[in-house]
UniProtKB/TrEMBL annotation:
<dbReference type="InterPro" id="IPR017946">
    <property type="entry name" value="PLC-like_Pdiesterase_TIM-brl"/>
</dbReference>
<feature type="domain" description="GP-PDE">
    <location>
        <begin position="66"/>
        <end position="156"/>
    </location>
</feature>
<dbReference type="InterPro" id="IPR030395">
    <property type="entry name" value="GP_PDE_dom"/>
</dbReference>
<protein>
    <recommendedName>
        <fullName>GP-PDE domain-containing protein</fullName>
    </recommendedName>
</protein>
<dbReference type="Pfam" id="PF03009">
    <property type="entry name" value="GDPD"/>
</dbReference>
Length: 346
């Protein structure tokens, strides 16, 4: 029937138009290269059987390949030395008005202390062992009795990061904590906009920090989900959703094909909209997880110049930036053995 032919012809034309509109190869190649965000600096990875349903998620860890603990100055400094472009740190206020770099709301799981972190002074936190609660496969506690005073202040974290940028991650949905962090940054002489830092966390502190620093990169999981979800269908029509303007788009490593114009056209659209693009580990979900295998870097297009979140900085960072790789042979061997165990557990 004639109308079927017309319909088929119209659909073919529409498909051709969408193909041209979203053709990555027709977009200019982005300038620069992928930038790695080291989560916590260098951190321990959870054991394969660890999950959010246990009392202390994240404290069941793989057999360690190194003794670094996330958010400590030592961990941040080594990640920066290896070449991390950005280091994500967790920020939590203390009872005496300081900012501690610590992820949990309470001390009971990771440390030898008890009670809310916010109820302790910085001096009290400095007296604790931040590796006390990490239990490795086999039932051992390999990180106990580590460095005294390892729980870092904000100022210590800034100094340890050197020239690396920081991504401050709020640990509570309290707008007042954005004011506390902003004041602490001023006291430390850190201008987050000039330094290229960013902010991540629940909606209330992110909304407040955006008022204090309107030109800074700031996003919540909710705002990133809105941008990502909207672009996955609107992008095919060449539309940059309102949720993505000045926002953050998350691209799971195993879903790159679902994003129109990936990578060059998408990057051009997001740059024009003032948005950031972050590649994350496969699977997505509520937790923004990072790369844990060096070979995952090979799945990111060479022309992509956005960010990639990294959970295992000890192995992934040197795979991309080997000129700064100062690991000893013993450290390399231990990291390789950990990778092989992780691959076998997949």
């Amino acid at each position: 029937m004639p109308w079927l032919r017309y319909l088929a012809f119209a659909l073919a034309l529409g498909f051709l138009a969408l193909t041209v509109v979203n053709a990555s190869w027709l977009a200019p190649e982005p300038k620069g290269a992928v930038k790695l965000i080291a989560d916590g600096g260098l951190r321990q990875l959870p054991a394969p059987d660890d999950n959010d349903d246990v009392p202390c998620p994240g404290t069941r860890i793989e057999q360690p390949a190194h003794d670094y603990i996330a958010n400590t100055a030592r961990s941040i400094a080594r990640a920066a030395k290896l070449g991390a472009h950005v280091i994500a740190v967790d920020v939590t206020p203390t009872a005496d008005g300081q900012i501690a770099l610590f992820a949990d709301e309470t001390l009971d799981c990771r440390t030898d202390g008890t009670g809310p972190v916010r109820g302790q002074s910085m001096a009290a936190l400095k007296a604790l062992d931040p590796g006390h609660g990490f239990r490795a496969e086999g039932g051992t506690y390999p990180l106990r009795d580590g460095e005294t005073g390892a729980i870092a202040t904000l100022a210590e974290g800034i100094r340890a990061a050197g020239r690396a940028r920081l991504l401050y991650r709020f640990t509570a949905d309290d707008a007042a904590e954005a004011d506390l962090l902003a004041a602490a940054l001023r006291a430390a002489g850190r201008d987050p906009v000039a330094a290229g830092d960013g902010f991540h966390g629940p909606p209330a502190p992110i909304a407040r920090i955006a008022q204090i620093h309107p030109d800074a990169w700031a996003f919540s999981p909710e705002s990133a989900r809105k941008c990502t979800s909207a672009y996955r269908w609107q992008g095919w029509f060449g539309i940059v959703p309102a949720a993505c303007r000045g926002g953050t788009l998350i691209v799971p490593l195993d879903r790159q094909w679902a994003f129109a114009g990936w990578p060059n056209r998408l990057v051009a659209r997001m740059e024009e909209a003032g948005a950031h693009v972050v590649v994350a580990a496969p699977g997505g979900g509520d937790r923004l997880a990072g790369l844990t295998f060096p070979e995952q870097l090979g799945e990111i297009p060479a022309s992509f110049n956005g960010y990639a979140l990294v959970d295992d900085g000890f192995t992934v960072i040197p795979a991309l930036i080997n000129r700064f790789d100062d690991r000893s042979q013993a450290e390399i061997d231990a990291a390789q053995a950990a990778l092989e165990r992780r691959r076998a557990a997949r």
